């Protein structure tokens, strides 16, 4: 009986995670569609586009890779660029790792492999409000986002011939708009509102200053690292 209750609870946690992921799906659909359109327009086949979404699964990296493939950049160059663009995942994974310290290495690998900016934002919000993150819940949001992204890029690749300029439809602003919404929600749920605002403003200033001299991706990494340090100092 106890085992049945545990199974039921795990199933509920997974479903709750999938439900909590729904607000982010519209952003995934629009930007994933755009990614499929761009990838196909850069000479990739539908199968290659879906394979990249399945195995790389990183929107900004896929956009960058598609453009570099169009420009006939070497494979090592594409791989290096994708690696650098995705370095921020080290920070995100490290941030939520303490909540999964009791899980096996394999379970932690599955969490990290499917972690995205959006699912990280949802996980951080849950951690702020409940001070814990359930593994099954995390897999619910991760898996839902993963399947939705693959589907969106597939549809985009299939209908790429009908879209000549995806920016006219505002598809390029879908993810930034979603991030703004997630940020506002996270700040509202945080009891230390004033300190959170200080961290956000400081990180934004650092980012704007960094990108004047460095690439955008490097600036994001610097702002994220210094933002974490500032947050740790002012919350003591």
Question: What does the model show?
Answer:
By secondary structure, this protein is mostly helical. The chain has 2 domains: 2-190, no CATH class; 191-236. 77% of the residues lie in helices and 0% in strands. The protein contains 11 helices and no strands. Helix 5 (88-96) runs parallel beside helix 7. The longest helix is centred in the N-terminal third of the chain and has 40 residues, at 2-41. The relative contact order is 0.14.
Structurally, the number of domains stands at: 2
Rg computed from alpha carbons, rounded to a whole number of angstroms: 19 Å
Mean pLDDT across residues: 81
Coarse shape = globular
What's the helix count? 11
The SSE string, one letter per element, is HHHHHHHHHHH
Global structural class: mainly alpha
Instruction: Provide the β-strand percentage band.
Output: under 5%
* Largest sheet, strands/sense/barrel: none
Tally of DSSP β-strands? 0
Distance between the termini: 45 Å
Concise overview:
By secondary structure, the protein is mainly alpha-helical. It is 77% helix and 0% strand.
What is the topological layout?
Elements: H1 2-41, H2 46-55, H3 59-70, H4 75-85, H5 88-96, H6 105-113, H7 117-130, H8 135-158, H9 174-189, H10 193-210, H11 216-234
Helix pairs in contact: 1-3, 1-8, 1-9, 2-8, 3-4, 5-7, 7-9, 10-11
What keyword list fits this structure?
single chain, 236 residues, mainly alpha, 2 domains, disordered N terminus
């Amino acid at each position: 009986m106890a085992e049945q209750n545990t199974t039921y609870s795990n199933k509920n946690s997974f479903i709750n995670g999938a439900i909590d992921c729904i607000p982010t799906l519209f952003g995934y659909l629009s930007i994933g569609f755009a990614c499929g359109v761009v990838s196909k327009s850069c000479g990739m086949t539908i199968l290659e586009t879906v394979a990249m979404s399945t195995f790389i699964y990183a929107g900004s990296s896929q956009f960058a890779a598609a453009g570099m493939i169009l420009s006939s950049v070497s494979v090592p160059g594409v791989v290096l660029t994708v690696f650098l663009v995705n370095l921020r995942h080290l920070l995100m994974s490290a941030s939520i790792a303490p909540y999964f310290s009791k899980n096996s290495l394999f379970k932690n690998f599955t969490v990290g492999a499917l972690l995205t900016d959006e699912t990280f934002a949802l996980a951080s919000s849950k951690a702020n409000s409940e001070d814990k993150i359930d593994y099954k819940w995390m897999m619910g949001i991760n898996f839902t986002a993963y399947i939705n992204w693959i589907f969106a890029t597939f549809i985009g690749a299939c209908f790429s011939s009908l879209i000549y300029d995806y920016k006219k439809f505002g598809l390029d602003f879908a993810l930034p708009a979603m991030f703004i919404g997630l940020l506002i929600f996270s700040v509202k749920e945080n009891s230390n509102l004033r300190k959170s605002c200080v961290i956000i403003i400081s990180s934004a200033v650092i980012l704007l200053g960094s990108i004047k001299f460095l690439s955008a991706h490097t600036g994001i990494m610097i702002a994220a690292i210094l933002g974490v340090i500032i947050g740790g100092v002012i919350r003591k």
